[in-house]
Design brief:
Blueprint: H1 11-42, E1 51-56, E2 64-68, H2 94-113
Antiparallel strand pairs: 1-2
């Protein structure tokens, strides 16, 4: 640091100058380390990136933060009780295909004109 000999900078000067950025770096590392562990321990599957808010970041006290996010729902397959069902079939005629192709062609041309 300018104004001091190498290795002779007082601790309070270093803390005043670099303390906030070091604190932010440590806080970031702690969150990035603890967040995935908590998700794994509690078997939570987040569906999006969390919104993290720091509740307590006093360097003299334990750090507290909150993470708000959506989770994937637990979907359980329900076995049907149906023992029988009706089978339906439909017939598609050439005229039905021609109408569908005409509709697709019209939509495609309309999109090209925009």
């Amino acid at each position: 640091m300018k104004g001091f000999r190498k290795g002779k900078v007082p601790a309070d000067v270093l803390e005043k100058r670099y303390g906030p950025s070091i604190h932010a770096d440590v806080l970031n590392e702690l969150i990035q380390d603890s967040y995935p562990k908590e998700l794994a321990e509690n078997k939570i599957r987040p569906a999006c990136v969390p919104s993290i808010s720091i509740d307590s970041d006093d360097p003299a006290k334990p750090i507290k933060y909150s993470a708000v996010f959506e989770v994937f729902p637990d979907i359980k397959v329900k076995i049907s009780r149906w023992s029988s069902y009706e089978k339906h079939s439909i017939e598609i005629e050439d005229s039905d295909l021609d109408l569908a192709i005409d509709d697709i062609w019209k939509i495609w041309r309309l999109g090209r004109c925009l």
